[in-house]
Design goal:
mainly alpha, two-stranded antiparallel sheet, 4 helices, 4 strands
Length: 108
């Protein structure tokens, strides 16, 4: 726990600046990364938060068919190797431009 976090009545930690549960953003991001690593792009909206909250509070109450339909309608397959290659090329180009930049600022 950091100094900006506090524990709520239900025992979860909250970010004192936003008063939102810290797990909320993390759960969204974990889902996106999980899909990405399996070759899918997950474009979610606010409905996913209700689904994740349902799993966290009473997983038996979450409608499996509706959740499956939601997940299928918000994902698309992509070429993971191609995506990684594009990122690598972009990072190399960025690194080379930073090395060859004649900036007068020594902190650049």
């Amino acid at each position: 726990m950091t100094t900006r976090e506090t524990r709520g009545r239900d025992g979860r930690y909250f970010d004192c600046r936003t008063t939102r549960p810290l797990w909320r953003g993390a759960a969204d991001n974990v889902a996106v990364v999980f899909y990405f690593l399996n070759g899918y792009r997950f474009e979610y909206d606010s409905e996913v938060r209700a689904i994740l909250k349902g799993f966290g509070t009473d997983e038996a109450a979450v409608d499996e068919e509706d959740t499956t339909d939601y997940l299928r309608s918000h994902t698309e397959a992509f070429d993971l190797a191609g995506e990684i290659e594009a990122w690598r090329d972009e990072l190399v180009r960025y690194g080379l431009s930073e090395l060859t930049d004649d900036s007068s600022d020594p902190n650049d």
